[in-house]
From TrEMBL:
Pathway stated in the Swiss-Prot or TrEMBL entry: Cofactor biosynthesis; thiamine diphosphate biosynthesis
InterPro entries xrefs: Haem_Oase-like_multi-hlx, Thiaminase-2/PQQC, Thiaminase_II, Thiamine_Salvage_TenA
One Pfam family of this chain: TENA_THI-4
Task of the protein: Catalyzes an amino-pyrimidine hydrolysis reaction at the C5' of the pyrimidine moiety of thiamine compounds, a reaction that is part of a thiamine salvage pathway.
Reaction(s) the record says it catalyses: 4-amino-5-aminomethyl-2-methylpyrimidine + H2O = 4-amino-5-hydroxymethyl-2-methylpyrimidine + NH4(+); thiamine + H2O = 5-(2-hydroxyethyl)-4-methylthiazole + 4-amino-5-hydroxymethyl-2-methylpyrimidine + H(+)
This protein's UniProt keywords: Hydrolase, Thiamine biosynthesis
Family per similarity comment: Belongs to the TenA family.
Domain of life: Bacteria
Protein name listed in UniProt: Aminopyrimidine aminohydrolase
Domain Thiaminase-2/PQQC: 16-219
Listed EC numbers: 3.5.99.2
Amino acid sequence: MSYQFDDLKKSCPTEWRDYIEHSFVQQLGDATLATEAFQHYLKQDYLFLIQFARAFALAAYKSPTLADLKQAKEGLEAIVDTELDLHISYCNEWGISEAELAELPEARATLAYTRYVLDTGNRGDLLDLHVALSPCMVGYGEIANWLNSRSTTIRGDSNPYDAWIAMYESDDFQEAMQAEVQWLNERLAEVSPARFEQLSRVFRDATRLEIDFWNMGLNLSE
Ligand SMILES: Cc1ncc(CO)c(N)n1
């Protein structure tokens, strides 16, 4: 039996679908999402990205080869030098200042998700950590593609969330997503059924925590 990334999704089809097709995502595509929900999500996503950067630093520490070390370093660099700056200016366009971002308390859903990823990486090896990160690295690209495949999704100036979709459909993000799937496919091909069972638990838990992250945005929960 040789496993692939797709097998992780197939091991929790309901959770994966609930994450990709979440009502937060649907409302964002239909341009009906409440401004406050999106702003709350954006603020917490800033805190998420900071912990996400730490996860790449952990990936560097957990890297057995120079190639893995370089990949982790590039991920960390991309988040710290580019994505966080982009996120801060995007938050600004939505009326959220950098000063406000710096003062934010972490919502429970943000704490749960990010610390789960870091703990999984600490307990396990680089593959555990990548599997824990894959719902975010692959899921958002899939979400953009799913939104584009629906007839009710509104694109362009009449959707205030158009730039969000554009970011995750971009070549840069889609290429990073493909690279992650390929990295995982190469490693999953060699794992035993018992190891795959462990990894699918990590994947399912991280996916459930992504669902909670959307719920947190919709419900404005802290
Ligand atoms: C919660 C969350 N998951 C995934 C991504 C995509 O990087 C993000 N920005 N935030």
